[in-house]
Amino acid sequence: MIELVTEPFQYAFFGRAMLAGVLIGAMCGALSVFVVLRRMSYIGHGLAHSVLGGVAVGVAFGADLYIGAIAATVVSALLIDRVTRRRGLHADAAIGIVTTAMFAIGVAVLAIIPTRVNTEALLFGNILGVNRVDLWVAAGVGGAFTVVLFTLYKRLVFTTFDAEVAGVHGVRTGVIELVFSLSTAAVVVASVRVLGVLLIAAAVVIPAAIARLLTRSFGATLAMATAIGVATSVIGLFASFHLNVPSGPTIVLSGALLFAVVFVVTAVLTRRQLVRARRPEAVVPADDMLQSVRNN
Is CATH 1.10.3470.10 the classification given to domain 20-278? Predict the structure, then answer.
């Protein structure tokens, strides 16, 4: 049993992957709270699709993977923000239009220009591909995201729950929304190597969904979602190594399985509480009550 835990660390790539997974799991977990509460679960899915377009174009012109990915996600985030605020469209419509177009560009470029891009690793993640550059990217994005979270915490929370009221109270909601979109884009780019393009969306939804089943406090939800993100990443990476499958699916399936367990357990406990609450209170017979009064 112990060998299942120690064996993977005999390989240098797994240590790098584990460190990157912990950083990415924490970021995705924390981000998921804001994504779920804003009802913008689609944004992670959309921006992840934009990555493919950026990577394809970047590699086609001889650029680094991250340069194309960063350019695509930043452009997508800015376009989504502009379209949503300037033309009155809902966020989901803007996300669908912009990110699908970027994804289509990537598919077209890959079909027209032959490249050496490992499409399977890009789509589903690959722990073998994690290198020092990926660690630095994950650490840099994690540090920047932490600074943003602590600096703008109250304004982010206020805008998340009621943007209109926040604006009335002097919060620059437009700036907050833009910062949130760019932060999401950065986390998506940092997660590509471990999670893959197609599975990032689940990683920025599942942790918060689990945490919401267990607590209603925002602070507790944020802390719990972050811990869940880390835990599912660790479990998923071990499963990826031993089962010899891409890391993205195992991480997502770990989170999905945990969600299913928590959902069933909380549903059973809630039902028991309702049954107990509906039970009529015990009625003391009149003779017993009279005898009690006489004794006293």
Answer: yes
